[in-house]
Design goal:
Keywords: DNA-binding, Transcription, Transcription regulation. By secondary structure, this protein is an alpha/beta fold. It contains 10 helices and 16 strands. A hairpin with an 8-residue loop joins strand 9 and strand 10.
């Protein structure tokens, strides 16, 4: 049974005409008729009822169409994917992420991405507003928080853990910060977002499973900054404690420009176990440029927790 015979069968079933299929393929109607007749002979059943005006599927033909059409589609997709693997990725890729994550984690990777995929033109859209991937023609998004819901496809890139940080200079001249409750004695650096500016949630990590204790600590301050990069910088400058994502303060902690105040606690402004997610509109017929971008960011950033 030839794949061309199956493709012709599907086309005739959908168009209801040998002549229309022949015209679309620039062939004689007799050629299409011979292929379908040979397929029917091979199967031993009549697939179409023929009249002078049209052709219509028989009951066996309907059953055969329902079974064979997905298989032919999957085979075509597999053939296309195999061809793409052997060719160099190319095209225009629209990628969006938040301003802070883009600046901190994505921009440093751009030289490596451009070197590996020289025929992909990349448009990086850094915005703290979640764009509509379909309406805004976005190929791939990197989003922060809980797993995205809806019709989009999402894959975890990394886990995010928040840290309460302050500079060594600030700690030398301020009241002690030995436990989360001590934050009430300090003017914290805050983001003007729900959860970030009123109370921070803590879990003391206990070696005994099931014994972790969760509680909330009210925070207050006089400086509100909507950009996480700027919030980190004023914390480094010694203006007070700030709640910051681990991917944002990795270098500052390693260089001792910031101190992780409560290393034995999990802390969050909203929900625990948030993450960074790769999000794209559809898994079906995923363009090669998107597939290689997904693999690239998983390779460079997908190590769970920084």
């Amino acid at each position: 049974m030839q794949i061309e015979s199956l493709e012709l069968f599907i086309e005739v079933a959908r168009q209801g005409s040998f002549a229309e299929v022949a015209r679309s393929r620039d062939r004689d109607a007799s050629y299409v008729s011979r292929i379908i007749s040979a397929l029917e002979k091979e199967m031993g059943v009549r697939l179409f009822q023929r009249t002078t005006r049209k052709v219509a599927l028989t009951e066996p033909g309907e059953l055969f169409l329902a079974s064979v059409e997905p298989l032919v589609g999957a085979l075509a997709a597999a053939q296309n994917e195999a061809r793409l693997i052997s060719s160099e990725p190319r095209g225009h890729l629209r990628l969006t992420t938040s301003v802070s994550f883009g600046q901190q984690c994505v921009v440093p990777l751009l030289p490596a991405f451009c070197e590996r995929f020289p025929k992909i033109s990349l448009e990086l859209i850094m915005s703290d507003t979640n764009l509509d991937l379909v309406a805004d023609r976005v190929d791939l998004a990197i989003r922060l928080g809980l797993r995205p819901t809806g019709d989009l496809i999402s894959a975890r890139l990394m886990q995010t853990r928040y840290r309460v940080c302050a500079s060594p200079d600030y700690l030398k001249s301020s009241p002690p910060l030995n436990e989360p409750g001590d934050l009430g004695d300090h003017r914290c650096l805050l983001m003007p977002l729900s959860g970030f500016s009123s109370a921070w949630r803590f879990i003391e990590e206990n070696s005994t499973p099931g014994q972790d204790r969760e509680y909330s600590v009210d925070v207050a301050g006089d400086l509100f900054i909507s950009n996480a990069l700027a919030l980190r910088d004023v914390a480094v400058a010694g203006l007070g404690p700030a709640l910051l994502a681990d991917w944002l303060v990795r270098d500052q902690l390693a260089e001792k420009r910031l101190v992780d105040l409560f290393a034995n606690y999990r802390v969050t402004p909203t929900q625990f176990y948030s993450g960074v997610w790769l999000v794209y509109p559809s898994r079906s017929f995923l363009a090669q440029k998107v597939r290689v971008a997904v693999d690239f960011f998983k390779e460079h950033l997908g190590h769970g927790q920084i």
